[in-house]
TrEMBL record:
Protein name: Flavin reductase
Species this chain originates from: Mesonia mobilis
Xref: SMART domains: Flavin_Reduct
Cofactor(s) for this UniProt protein: FMN
InterPro entries membership: Flavin_Rdtase-like_dom, Split_barrel_FMN-bd
């Protein structure tokens, strides 16, 4: 058996070991606003329910290990003491992952992830309309666990109002766990889907995804591509160049096929590429159609 003293290994390695063993962890998709009222949206897997009376949720943004900097979410709740915690299900998991990109302060992650801002009733931060369950909360306490990189800050949130989509309720107004279809976080790039098992989403940390808001309108408003599909497309830093698209069509003898096929048919083919995680090829065939 491997035995480890936390003081003897690097924080990054300890972090990796802990998140790979303490899980699967639920995800708090936290919506906040800064002092100027600009929205921020970010996921946190250090999250759980801690009390029912009063109803308390707790999530923990950690300081960045490399430079001890704090996340925008932590800065916002320190200033405004309000947050909306949105539940993440499989239908929005790719968009949630895209929202975890370290965009600059002031960038609207709702727009980057292609999610809809919905007014809350009791707090300033927006709800994620696509989320099946949303908790409007006031922040009652922030507990600082340390000052070094990797240190957590427990954000204690009292639930003021809870919103539940009709689609996940049964005939008795209880939540149907199968319809809810929640996802949870594991170590590395791994997630777990209720009753479906483990799947992978590459973490958007090595590049700055362009975001769903940067997609051409014909793609963004597709009747075929889902929010998760758009989220995958938005992870690329930039769309392929025209030369790359032409080479792709030539190599696969697709030029005539793309020209003669309907937009819906091409979008369906792109969706198949996305299911195989061939994001670049999906982009190429989508752009090929948009140039016809």
């Amino acid at each position: 058996m491997l035995t480890i003293d936390p003081k003897d290994i690097a924080t990054q390695k300890l972090y990796g070991l802990m998140v790979s063993t303490v899980g699967p962890r639920p995800i708090a998709f936290a919506s906040t606003v800064n002092a100027e009222g600009k929205p921020n949206l970010a996921p946190f897997s250090f999250f759980n329910m801690m009390s029912a009376n009063p109803p308390i949720l707790v999530f923990s943004p950690v300081l960045k290990i490399s430079d001890k900097s704090s996340k925008h979410t932590l800065q916002n709740v320190e200033q405004n003491k309000e947050v909306v915690i949105n539940v993440v299900n499989y239908d929005i998991v790719q968009q949630m992952s895209l929202a975890s990109t370290a965009y600059a302060e002031g960038v609207n992650e709702f727009e980057k992830a292609g999610l809809t801002m919905q007014d809350a009733e009791m707090v300033k931060p927006f709800r994620v309309k696509e989320s099946p369950v949303q908790f409007e909360c006031k922040v009652t306490q922030i507990v600082t666990l340390g000052e070094e990189g990797g240190a957590g800050h427990l954000v204690c949130c009292e639930v003021l109002k809870m919103h539940i989509a009709d689609e996940v309720l049964d005939e008795n107004n209880k939540i149907d766990q199968f319809k809810l279809d929640q996802v949870s976080r594991m170590g590395g790039n791994l997630y777990s889907r209720a009753n479906k098992g483990i799947f992978e989403i590459p973490k958007p940390i090595s590049s700055m995804g362009m975001g769903v808001d940067a997609l051409p309108e014909s793609i963004r408003k597709s009747s075929i591509l889902t929010g998760n599909d758009l989220g995958k497309l938005g992870t690329l830093e930039a769309a392929p160049e025209e030369k790359e698209v032409e080479e792709f069509l030539s190599e696969n003898k697709l030029k005539e096929y793309v020209s003669e096929s309907s937009l819906e048919k091409i979008h369906a083919i792109a969706q198949e590429y996305l299911k195989k995680e061939e994001v670049l090829n999906a982009w190429k065939i989508l752009l090929a159609k948009s140039k016809n």
